[in-house]
Write a structure and sequence with these properties.
alpha+beta; Nuclear Transport Factor 2, Chain: A; 2 domains; globular
Length: 226
């Protein structure tokens, strides 16, 4: 089961293409939201993080308090109906996930989506021939036993991410977003070089024990804080 994944880029491609972002989370922006009203209006749908009065850590904490049986997995600042809000994804032990809109000014929970289950969502997309091609390519040539082992390792990686503190997850998410901005300006040659460097850096990550996976993520989070 590969349901719990992280988002972002280079390290996300190295650390986490191993872990990647769950397709459930990747499609989260397709959700249609009601006409919410926040406290920080923004023009032209441009997201300005300097306008936020609360942090990503605050928003992820608020989301967990709102949905007490779930953990915050990912979040970012977005514009919804012309207001600045944090969009947070939370997931529980049954891999049900919800999206929560938290006002970036007051911290008020403005909207919570209905629960969706990763497994049923994935099955639907597969039946519609929209299965993740990258994952199919990743497993290409592997035996059923090898695929099962890789999926087990992916699940452990996701659980390791889920078990991190909100502070560590938020630090890594913000770091990855900054890396993505740099990535977008790189040449194709530099992108390929960076991919290989990150691939080597995180080589062997999946084969670590669950506790070692968590420790590796915690060490990385601490390294980007210092």
């Amino acid at each position: 089961m590969i349901s719990i994944k992280i988002t972002a880029l280079l390290v996300i491609m190295g650390l986490i293409a191993t872990v990647g972002i769950s397709p459930s989370y990747a499609y989260w922006d397709k959700t249609e939201y009601p006409a919410i009203q926040g406290t920080i209006p923004i023009e032209n749908e441009e997201v300005d993080s300097s306008l936020a009065k609360i942090t990503l850590v605050d928003a992820m904490t608020i989301a967990e308090e709102e949905i007490s049986d779930s953990k915050s997995m990912y979040g970012k600042l977005v514009s919804i109906n012309g207001y600045l809000v944090y969009k947070i994804v939370v997931s529980n032990d049954e891999h049900d996930y919800k999206k929560i809109l938290v006002d970036a000014g007051s911290g008020e929970v403005l909207y919570v989506t209905d629960s969706k289950n990763y497994d049923s969502n994935k099955k639907k997309r597969y039946n519609e021939n929209r299965h993740d091609k990258k994952m199919k390519d990743y497993f290409k040539g592997m035996t059923p036993e090898q695929i099962a082992e890789k999926k087990k390792q992916f699940k452990e990686m996701g659980e390791a991410w889920k078990s991190l503190s909100i502070q560590d997850k938020a630090s890594m998410i913000m770091h990855f977003m900054q890396m993505k901005l740099q990535w977008d300006m790189m040449s194709e040659e530099d992108k390929q070089k960076q991919k290989e460097e990150m691939k080597e850096k995180w080589k062997g990550l999946l084969t670590l024990t669950p506790e070692e996976k968590k420790q590796k993520l915690e060490e990385y989070a601490q390294s980007i804080k210092s």
